[in-house]
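Researcher: Go.
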Amino acid sequence: MPPSARLAFSCGLLGLFLTVLNQFSAQGLSEALNPAFSRSGVLAGVMAVGLMLVGLLWTQAQPPPRERVSLGGREGLELANELPEHLRQELAWGSTMLLTATPAAALVLVWDERVLLRRGLLAEEPFQEGPISARARSQQKLISLVNLNLYPGAGEFSYLPEGIPAVLLYPLGQRGWLVLGGWSVRCFSQSDERWIEGWGARVKTALEALGA
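Model: Structure:
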């Protein structure tokens, strides 16, 4: 719970406790309570509960960041040499933005069964198409695996660093994929998904323009 949400919740809880305590102590002193006093007690209780709800809603609106998983692999950049210079610059720029503006730890770009780009934490295993990649290509839509341990067949992502907790897989038409591995479970937001879809569509257009 963020500090501001914790403060609101604690104040509400304390206020509710003091209101209940005040009501019980007043009943012990007098059998007939003043109606105005009773109404003020109810209002104070409602305000205290409202503060507690604000704290809970604040936590949902600003969930605490999840801890990063300790991943193996060396950090680096592997970029196909035969690509034109303008496309190499595009891939270098886009991959830098994705690795800095999103919770991605690793990025892999595959086109015509060839790995054109690896960046971030690098694994030693080669790319191999699996059932999840094939499904993304057939459906032509992004697939988000928020917790890779919960998905059978997640072994097809062995070309990503071992123990990677989350994956975004975006198909580049029928000829390739753009794959991002995240630092923690449920780390990618809808904004991150829009990032990979937008840049992936741009890369697909550039690769198709090569006539390869």
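Model: The CA atoms of residues 29 and 134 lie 75 Å apart.
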